[in-house]
Amino acid sequence: MAQDPLFRLPEREVTDPRLFLRRREFIGGALALGAAASLPSLARAEAEPTRTPLNARAGAFSTDEPSTDYADATTYNNFYELGTGKGDPVRNAAALRTKPWTLTIEGEVARRGRFDLDDILKPHPLEERIYRLRCVEAWSMVIPWVGFPLGDLLRRFEPTSKARYVAFETLLDPEHLPGQRRSLLDWPYREGLRIDEAMHPLTILAVGMYASTLPNQNGAPLRLVVPWKYGFKSIKSIVRIRLTEQRPATSWNLSAPREYGFYANVNPAVDHPRWSQKRERRIGEFRKRQTLPFNGYADAVAGLYAGLDLRENH
Length: 314
Ligand SMILES: Nc1nc2c(c(=O)[nH]1)N[C@H]1C(S)=C(S)[C@@H](COP(=O)(O)O)O[C@H]1N2
Ligand SMILES: [Mo]
Description:
single chain; alpha+beta; Sulfite Oxidase, Chain A, domain 2; eight-stranded mixed sheet; five-stranded mixed sheet; disordered N terminus; binds the ligand Nc1nc2c(c(=O)[nH]1)N[C@H]1C(S)=C(S)[C@@H](COP(=O)(O)O)O[C@H]1N2; binds molybdenum atom
């Protein structure tokens, strides 16, 4: 069987609610006892100092579903650079250094260069967008993101007529990032979008969540959020954006092409080769929910894929 580091014990993670229950009891118990040495609370304390309040106006497209608890959204993560366990990213969060941070914008744009992140962000007013995030592992969350449309940023750098795709890369820093000292993926983590997906008003770059800066484990200081695609498309801690004529390689597609395609649209009609995508467990709930086509954003985005076979282009 092909080795697939993202999904160790996927069936159990996906189907066994007791795993989740135990964790909730553990966190609850630890807080009740004030046990400072317990893993999640210690990790949270370490992550706290990096959290700065952000002002943002209410943006478009927000769901009115209740947001996931902050504690869950920041302690149950996928960020392989910081470890493969869901609790590893918060524990190893301090390994990611986010200041200073530079973003390289290159390829098919009139204005290329390497920029300080603060300068890149300055012209963009922040919005809060409450979006669903659904992982291919069949869990989901509702997150109040703080960010701005990716398209607004790309337009400032003037894409050329050859710009058909947008490629993204995460920081490569094996000296500090423990996951990058193992060949879990072909580092750096890479993702890509078609230019029309990147320019779509639902697609945002997030610099924060829950009205404050992003915790490191959630992809500080800058991450992509594409709410109608599986979570793995939402690449964290971005250092490079390249506009390209050719479709870029993406990390999960390179690692397991049969399981992860380029598009990765949330699609309950197409099962992952090893498990169903029909339902999902919303973190904080027990009864499973039906997964919606395009994660509930079909009205806004289904038109992007008219004429495309979504089974073949999964
Ligand atoms: N650089 C990087 N980005 C990443 C990942 C990763 O391992 N490395 N994991 C992805 C996956 S599989 C998911 S589900 C989401 C999880 O986001 P969250 O931890 O903020 O919920 O981040 C995505 N972005
Ligand atoms: Mo994921």
